[in-house]
Amino acid sequence: MIVRHVSNMLPIHRVRDQMEDLFNQLWGGGLPGAGLAAGVPALNVWEDDQSLFVETELPGLTMTDVEVTVMGNELTIKGERKEQPVEGATYHRRERSGGTFARTMKLPVQIDANRVTATLKDGVLTVTLPKAEAAKPRKIEVK
Hints:
Layout: H1 11-27, E1 43-47, E2 51-57, E3 66-71, E4 74-81, E5 99-106, E6 117-121, E7 124-130
Antiparallel strand pairs: 1-2, 2-7, 3-4, 4-5, 6-7
């Protein structure tokens, strides 16, 4: 399971991410960005003043194949891609794997779990995680 930290402000976070990528390449069965072919979908994570956003490609999946949960400061995306073998076929190459996957990441800010939304459109899952009021930037008047 890969946990990718959004904040790369500290050099140690970049080193940790690079080590995770290396271990994933060696023992995870895939290459960076290989997505579901490596068993775990790749994520893009970004934020604005109001929300944190997580986006992942899940080609061929429907919302009934995907489960999104938020618990405390962790987001988990689980799913299953059902294999659709062609009866009587001889495969020359088979790179689209089936099976289950789970991806968990620690969230860098507090979120309002009651307002989290997830949409799946054209094979792209987008999870919108509104920030809790305590995590939003607040302008302080200087007197």
